[in-house]
Amino acid sequence: MGQDQTKQQIEKGLHLYQSNQTEKALRVWMRVLEKSADPAGRFRVLGCLITAHAEMGRYKDMLKFAVVQIDTARELEDPDYLTESYLNLARSNEKLCEFQKTISYCKTCLNMQGTAVSLQLNGQVSLSMGNAFLGLSIFQKALECFEKALRYAHNNDDKMLECRVCCSLGNFYAQIKDYEKALFFPCKAAELVNDYGKGWSLKYRAMSQYHMAVAYRKLGRLADAMDCCEESMKIALQHGDRPLQALCLLCFADIHRSRKDVQTAFPRYDSSMSIMTEIGNRLGLIQVLLGVTKCWMIQKELDKALESIEKAQELAEGLGNKLGLLKLHCLCERIYRTKGQQQELRDHVVKFHECVEEMELYCGMCGESIGEKNNQLQALPCSHFFHLKCLQTNGTRGCPNCRRLSVKPGYV
């Protein structure tokens, strides 16, 4: 298959894919991969296969094609191709919750600075790295990466990237419980979709609606949460987007749990868990198990709650997800207090505080914890964040956290 024919077949596959004929598109692209002698064409078709498998939640296949793409990039001996292929390898590992590998591949991308094309990918690299740091609950570095990605998006007038970063920032602030910002950023993403997204994939609309739904639920605006989640789910079903379907089912379950409708929540958690297991979203599974635990606690089935906690703890330890562990210790503390088991209660109180210290989840001004309840937060240029009211009350001449870190211990 020559260069022109390769190009035609790739375009044919894209047309089928955009018409929701995904399996036909995959067959066309696989034929190109088998028969094309054009390395640049093979590189491009591998990019199409990587994107398609990402959206279907077939993350192991996504990773497999990303590895082949790196070999093709080396054959082409072009730094731009190599940077793009390493970014796809980073994104594949991010989807599979291999966060340390993601960070390592992202750093490789940033060290391979080639031409202007490579520089344009830096925003996507920073976004992927930010998502990985967030998965590991390293909040300052996550925020630093998201802010870098946002700067790249503004400098290159890349509205799609800006939309994706806004959704990640919504997720970031939802995790540390600044629910005002958790809603602001996906609303901003939804505005970008409305203003610029006529030719975009509908996944951008679905993504912003899902993150709005999460923030609305956290704020107790359950009807708004349900409306946004239903819109997101509708698009996810139309496009066969399994990862988003799993997240929407989790959100629906959380909404029903917030309404104390445990019987309706359980089957939705089960459906979400089934898809999360199928696609390999272990971070999502932790969230599902946290929701299931809370349902058992509402029903006062404390031993069943502890069983769910045990499964979630194994996953959180395996991923290095410190925030998940903190939440689990907090739930254990409540359960053992109810059961009157003092030794177990003390153990989990100690572990909870160790997690808070490790993640620096406290305000460097007032010393109170961050992420315990809904609070307005403000980040300084160094990406350390504090209670907004503390910054307004005390002001700051530099970051107290950075000052503390710069004081080196003396040697005796």
TrEMBL record:
Q: Where are the TPR repeats?
A: 123-156
SUPFAM superfamilies in the record, alphabetically?
Answer: RING/U-box, TPR-like
Domain RING-type: from-to ranges: 363-403
Q: Where in the cell is it found?
A: Cytoplasm, Cytoskeleton; Postsynaptic cell membrane
Q: Which GO terms describe its cellular component?
A: cytoplasm; cytoskeleton; neuromuscular junction; postsynaptic membrane
Q: Please give one Gene Ontology molecular function term for this protein.
A: acetylcholine receptor binding
> What UniProt keywords apply to this chain's record, in alphabetical order?
Cell membrane, Cytoplasm, Cytoskeleton, Lipoprotein, Membrane, Metal-binding, Myristate, Phosphoprotein, Postsynaptic cell membrane, Repeat, Synapse, TPR repeat, Zinc, Zinc-finger
Q: Name one GO biological process term.
A: positive regulation of neuromuscular synaptic transmission
Key word Phosphoprotein present: yes
Superkingdom of this entry's organism? Answer: Eukaryota
Q: State the membrane topology.
A: Peripheral membrane protein
Query: Where this protein primarily resides, as one coarse class?
Result: cytoplasm
**Entry-linked Pfam families:** Rapsyn_N (PF10579), TPR_8 (PF13181), zf-RING_2 (PF13639)
Query: Which family does the record assign?
Result: Belongs to the RAPsyn family.
What is the protein name stated in its UniProt record?
Answer: 43 kDa receptor-associated protein of the synapse
